[in-house]
Amino acid sequence: MRNSTIANPADLVREDRVHHSVYSDPAIFELEMERLFGRAWLLLGHESQVANPGDYITTRMAREPVILTRHHDGSLQVLINRCTHRGALLAHEARGNARQLVCPYHGWVFDTNGTLRNVPVAQGYGKDAQATFAGLGLAKVPRVSSYRGFVFASLAATGPDLVEFLGPIASSFDDMVDRAPDGEIEFAGGVFKHAYNGNWKLVLENHLDGIHPNSVHASSVDAARAVPDDPAARPGAERYAEIPLRQMRQNGAPEPVWEALGIWSSEWGHGYMGDYHSDARLVAAMNHPVFAEYRSRLEARVGPAEAVRILGVSRFNSVVYPNVSFMSQYRQLRIVHPLAVDRTVVYTYNIRLKGAPEQMYRDTVAFSNVVNGTASWVLTDDLEVYERAQRGLAAATPEWVVTARGASGDVEEPGGFRRGATGTSELYIRRQFQAWRKYMAEAPA
Ligand code: FES
Ligand SMILES: [Fe+2]
Question: pTM score, two decimals?
C-alpha cells in the first residue's frame, strides 16, 4: 500500500499508527468532506452573533456555504447560501442584518427562513410561474441544535443528537458559560483568522499536544525569559504584558510538568487538556482588584461554594472533533475550516463573560493576541511546524505515522472519558482517528 487505498479508508487507521495519506491525499480529503464533515455536528457559532431578528452570519460546512439567520419568529435557521435560481451566493458579508435576503444576480427575494418571497418580472415564467416557484425556497441544513448558546448543525438528517454527540465534553462548554457572573457569554469583537498550508487535522492534534512546546516554542520561551521579572524594569512594557509573558514562559516548563498534567478523551474524537496552567501561574489578575471584583460578582449569583467549584475547574484546550477547539478558562474559541487537503483556515473568536468587569475581556483579547493573533510569537511557531509536517507527510516513505505514545496505559474513567497514562499520551490522536475511521467507513445515508 503505497498511497491511499480509497476502497477501504478504514484500513488507513490502526491502533497505534495511521497511513500518511490521511493527511496528504486529495481523494481522502474529498471523502472526508462527504463522510465526516458531511455528517458530524459542526459548530457554526454562538447565538449572540445572531441575537436579533434578521441577524445573520455566513460560514461553511464541508463544501457548503451556509447562512445562520435569526428569523423574525425567533427561530435559528441554517440555510444553504446559494440562490435557487442560478446559484449565486446570496449573502457575501461575514455578518449582517437583513429583513430579507435578496440575490445580487437577478433579484430573487427570500425570507430569513429560506421561503421564496418574490421573483422580479415573474410573468416571464408564463402561466405556470407559481408551480415553478413552489419548492424553490432555499435548501435547509437538516439538523440544527444549540448547547448553552453554541449553535451546531449537521448536514446529515440522521445520526446521534447533539447531546449524545458531545457526551462528556459538553462539560467544557459548561465550564465556559458557568464562569459568567450573569450566566451568559457572548462572542465579542472581531475575528482573528489564520491560514496555513497543511491539513486540518494538524491543528486539532497540536492543541492537545504537550510534547511539542519545548521544541516548537523554544525561541519564544527564550525571548520571554529574557524579559525582566519586574514590570517596572521592562522597557515600554504594558501593564498586561504579564499574561503573554507567563504563557510564553509556561511553554518552556520542564518535562515532568507536562507528564503530570491530564489528557482526557471521549467518543467521537473529543478531548481536553487539563491541569495545565493554574490561575495562580497564568492569570495575572489573580491577586488583582479586577479579579476580586469578578469573583464577588460571580459569588453573588452562584454563592461562594459554587464559585470555588467553578473557578477550580482547570481546562486548557478542549477539542470538539472535527471543527472546534476552545479554551473555556481563557475565553476563546477556534473554528477550523478545511479548504483543501493541504490548506486550512482557522477563525478565532474572543468571548465576553456577561456581568464580568470589562478588563476581563481586555485580558482575553491580550491573551488571544499572543496565542491566536497573526503577530503572535507562539502561533507562528506552530504554523511553521504544520507546514513542515505537511511537506514531510507528502512523502511516500515511510508509509505510517506513529501515534503510539502512551498507548498501553489509557485508563477508562467514569462518565465517558478515557485518560491518558501521562499528560503527553497521544491518546487524543488515537481517539480522533477512531472517530475518523467510524465516519469514513461508510457513505452517509
Ligand atoms: S441567481 Fe439568484 S436571482 Fe438569479
Ligand atoms: Fe504550540
Answer: 0.94
